[in-house]
Amino acid sequence: MKEFNVIISGVGGQGVITLTRILAKAAILNGYDVKTSELHGLSQKGGSVETHIRFGALTGSEQIHSPLIEKGKADLIICIEAQESLRSYIYGSKKSGTIFLINDFIKPILGSKIIPQTKDILKEIKRFSEKALSIPASKIVKEKLGKSVLAGVYILGYAASKKFFPLKTKFILESIKKTVPEKYFLLNKKAFDLADHD
Amino acid sequence: MIEEIISNKVGDKIILLGNEGIARGALESGVQFVSAYPGTPSSEVGNTFWRIAKKVGVYFEFSTNEKVALEAGAGAAFSGLRTLVSMKHFGLNVASDFFMPLVYSGIKGGMVILVADDPSCWSSAQSEEDTRAFAYLAHIPILEPSTPQECKDFTKLAFDLSEKFQIPIMIRETTRVALQGGIVKLGRIIKGKRKGKFIKDPHQFSTMPPRVLEMKKELLEKIEKIKKEVSEKSSINKIYKNSNKSKLGIITSSVSYLYVKEALKELNLDIPILKIGFFYPLPEQKIKKFIKSFKKVLVVEELEPYLEREIAILAKDANPKLQILGKNLLSKIGELRPEQVIKAVAKLANKKYKTETLLKIKNPKLKIPKRSPQFCPGCPYWLVFNALKKAVDPKKVIFGGEIGCYMLAFYPPFHFQDYLFCMGSSVGVAHGIKKSSSKQKLISFVGDSSFFHSGIPALLNAVHNKSNPLIIVMDNQTTAMTGHQPNPGTNKTSMGDSVEGAKIENIIRACGVKNLKIIDPIKQKEFIKAVKDSLNNKINEVSVIIARRPCIYI
Fold first, then answer.
1. Distance from the A173 Cα atom to the nearest Cα atom in chain B, whole angstroms
2. In a shared domain, residues B324 and B447
3. Can you spell out the DSSP letters for B140-193?
4. Cβ separation of A48 and B412 shorter than 8 Å?
5. Cβ distance of A34 and B261 shorter than 8 Å
6. d(Cα B531, Cα A142) in Å, to the nearest integer?
7. Domain assignment present for B374
8. B27 with B168, same domain?
9. Same domain, B89 and B175
10. Is position B443 within any domain?
């Protein structure tokens, strides 16, 4: 199998790290080798967060090595906060066929004069990708489940239902079960399944 | 549910961070004593033991500071226990006074010191450091893993070597190793069953002259022995090559090795690689043999060109015409990125590679500013800084900062930080400024954990020498920035046992401070008044306000 590269970006507190763990474990269950890269500490306190997840063949010449994805080489970029896509875009390219999934949710940046709208951001990102989509994930999970932190898992469910990554849905669900605290599993499962019924 | 990291299902493959790989490696080595001071990117080593210590029967503590952690670990290792001590690069600076002679004396039980560097300073103020330099200062053997699996394997190797040669071994990670997730194959957890006993041996443990120079001689002999018997033969200094005809070669270590492998894949090149796992002592003969027949060699390492310099020296003898590429292509500042390494490898092989034009990466027209880290919603520090805004004219007051969540006051909306150096330094500097410029008003911030860590000597100094800064102790009753680890002020030890936490006010009074107030910053009026009173009083003494309100996450 050719390698598969995912970038997840967002703002500290949105669950970017949890989402990274879910995808990484699902990839192992799926029989792939996995590499991730994340940052902790100072950079996590409400600042921009960006993680890399790569999976691919366990052996052979297609094996993955680096924990960081090269510029322009992402297959999928998930932005849980829309503006952050304007930082993560460097990992996407038309040549790589990068899919952008952008949550229609803006967290204002202190000190910025103009707050862009998701549709303007999307227009911009479309210069780098033929497959850039905005999804009202935060709005949907807030309305239906009362918790906006589930937006990331909702987007994961959306990506799974559209087969945007080569991972079996049952493995992602198993991975969610292994990753989130037991008492929140059902809620996360609901968020994951919501996307299917859109 | 039993945590995966303490699972005894030998052969299972689980995903771990590099730091968790270190912890697991220690568990598979029969570690019995672990001490740490938290600091990104090393914190998960301590955090792991903080969670599991009781379950696995290992003693663990977050010590008062890194030097104390190292001393405690050494005491355990002198008594025969296998010991792990963990810290970030700045921690080793703090611990270095003890660290140097410790390598002289050596230990009894295996001792591994984990130090994590942070190239690009993702979570580090102060400075960007390459801790490998300590090899030259202290003559400590240093291993550099590349992946979480190697973090585990190298830790086990380090314990064995440490015990065999009776010398502490350092493992050096960088951020992209420490916080890299990858598959780790589990081995068996060994429950350490040694009974600690300190056997008197002043000959080994007292570094008094003239014995100390003998000890230095013994250390250098030990290093020579480790070089010949281990480093030269070890499979962790590994050559990857498919043919003997290549005129090009690459020498690399740590995470850079992974970028090199990726670059060769990307460029479809087959160039021999020497991967250095043993940074010190280097396998000199192996390197000489490797470079002997090459025309050009590329050295890929993050930060300082330590490997490159060593190789240049070895080449004088082994291959004087060898062209050495390295820091002429790769920066000494910041971490390496895969694209930079691809470019350097392409240059070595005279192959064209223009990634950005090929992929048509343009700059977006829509620009967004940097998203600075912020105090969490509900953080008590909002209250402190909002009160200060009302109490003083920020333009007329000097604000001394140091390491902890309150350093976020540097960013908008406050900009309350005029200097920042290391843990415990804000009070020391404040004293010097006030002695030199007594009319300027100054407020020095110090957190509870920083105060215990290294703030107390500075406070004593300021009081004794009749200085008069206002010190605000930002007492949120935890080590918040790195993940709410306990400190000597908390009422629980790292093992989870109850204890009476040290009272900061008692220590401050004992240092001789008379002008002390303890205020919950939710009482804004009282807080504002106390700040004004302290800054405007005419007594030539240190004033301290303890702003006491717990972090919302504890």
1. 17
2. no
3. --EE---SHHHHHHHHHHHHHHHHHHT--EEEEEEHHHHTEEEEEE--------
4. no
5. no
6. 43
7. no
8. yes
9. yes
10. yes
Question: Does B205 lie in the same domain as B155?
Answer: yes
CA-CA distance, A96 to A116, in Å (whole number)? Answer: 27
Distances (CA, A) of A83 to A98, A117, B384: 18, 9, 31
Closest chain A residue by Cα to residue B375: A45
- B416 within 8 A of B444, measured Cβ to Cβ: no
pLDDT per residue of chain B (554 residues) written in tens, 0 to 9: 468 999 999 999 999 999 999 999 999 999 999 999 999 999 999 999 999 999 999 999 999 999 999 999 999 999 999 999 999 999 999 999 999 999 999 999 999 999 999 999 999 999 999 999 999 999 999 999 999 999 999 999 999 999 999 999 999 999 999 999 999 999 999 999 999 999 999 999 999 999 999 999 999 999 999 999 999 999 999 999 998 899 999 999 999 999 999 999 999 999 999 999 999 999 999 999 999 999 999 999 999 999 999 999 999 999 999 999 999 999 999 999 999 999 999 999 999 887 655 555 566 778 888 888 889 989 999 999 999 999 999 999 999 999 999 999 998 889 999 999 999 999 999 999 999 999 999 999 999 999 999 999 999 999 999 999 999 999 999 999 999 999 999 999 999 999 999 999 999 999 999 999 999 999 999 999 999 999 988 888 999 999 999 999 98
Q: Scanning every residue of chain A, which has its alpha carbon at the shortest distance from the alpha carbon of B339?
A: A70
Question: A 94-153 residues with CB below 8 A of B?
Answer: 94-96, 109-112, 116, 120-121, 124-125, 127-128
A90 contacts in chain B (CB < 8 Å): 361
pLDDT in tens, B497-512: 999 999 999 999 999 9
| B96 within some domain | yes
Kindly state whether residue B373 falls inside one of the protein's structural domains: no
A28-32 contacts: CB < 8 A, separation 24 or more? A28/B13, A28/B14, A28/B15, A28/B183, A29/A171, A29/A174, A29/A175, A30/A55, A30/A166, A30/A167, A30/A168, A30/A171, A31/A58, A32/A1, A32/A4, A32/A56, A32/A57, A32/A58
**Is A59 an 8 Å CB contact of chain B?**
no
Residue with tokens 């990331």: A152
Residue of A nearest to B407 (CA): A42
Query: How far off is chain B from A198, nearest CA to CA, in Å?
Result: 31
Q: Assess contact for B23 and B58: CB atoms under 8 A.
A: no
Peptide bond into B41 cis (omega under 30): yes
Residue B269, domain CATH? 3.40.50.920
Q: Which tens digit of pLDDT belongs to each residue from A43-67?
A: 667 789 999 999 999 988 889 999 9
Residues of A in contact with B176 (CB under 8 A): 37, 67-68
Question: Count of domains in chain A?
Answer: 1
DSSP code at position B553: T
Count of the separate structural domains present in chain B: 3
Q: What is the ipTM of this complex?
A: 0.96
Query: Residue B226 belongs to what domain range?
Result: 4-231
Which of B146, B359, B479 would you mutate first to test chain A, the one with the most A CBs within 10 A? Answer: B359
Interface probe for B, chosen from A66, A91, A148 (most Cβ of B below 10 Å), is A66
In sequence order, the β-bridge partners of residue B62 are B36
The CB density around residue B309, as the number of other CB atoms within 10 Å, is 14
Give the chain B residue nearest A88 (alpha carbons).
Answer: B364
Distance CA B534, CA B441 (A): 10
Pair (B285, B252) in one structural domain: yes
Residue B125 backbone dihedrals phi, psi, to 5 degrees: -85, -150
Residue A134 has pLDDT above 80, yes or no: yes
Q: Which domain holds residue A96?
A: 4-197
Global model pTM greater than 0.95: yes
Q: Given an 8 Å threshold on Cβ–Cβ distance, is A42 in contact with B481?
A: yes
Collapse the DSSP code of B3 into the 3-class scheme (helix H, G, I; strand E, B; otherwise coil) and give the result: coil
